[in-house]
Amino acid sequence: MQVEKSPRLTIYHANQCDPKRCTGLKLKRHGLARIVTKARFLPRRAVVLNPFSDIAFSPADRERVESFGLAALDCSWEHAEKVLLKQVRGTSRCLPILIAGNPVNFGKATKLTTVEALAGALYISGFKQEAVDLLSIFKWGHTFLELNSALLENYASARDSTEIVKMQCSFARGANVS
Fold this sequence. Notes:
Low-confidence stretches: none
Largest sheet: 5 strands, parallel
Number of helices: 7
Number of domains: 1
Order of helices and strands: EHEEHEHEHHHH
Strand content: 5-15%
Strand order of the largest sheet: 2-1-4-3-5
Radius of gyration: 15 Å
Shape: globular
Helix content: 40-55%
Structural class: alpha/beta
């Protein structure tokens, strides 16, 4: 019997946010993630959550996440493209549509905090308890799971990126998300 271990989480932190409200720094303080301040220090073969990637994150990425880890980019939306257009190490994947549960962007599609992005990816790739554990250190963490329960379950049942794209397209049509 093989014991499953939690995936290694790495966060590229660009120092562009309020440190008191930064979810990435809070994860580090709780010993749940490693922070790097240069994109070149991201793990070489990890899955990097990159909103500009052409390939959607899916359960097919589980093995890579388990073996090499999961990385998120913690920078402001205004500066994200500049950071991400540089050569980012790892395998870039774009998260499918999820709704923010955090107080700043509550109810907005795709405007996730770093912890929401990591938790969404963990949930989709079958690390559901790890996702719940990450979110449990935030007062509003349960809200993200409640808002996205149906989406997360659907995405977690997909075979690959192609199925994820089909699911999110049908969601976007039904919700008029642009």
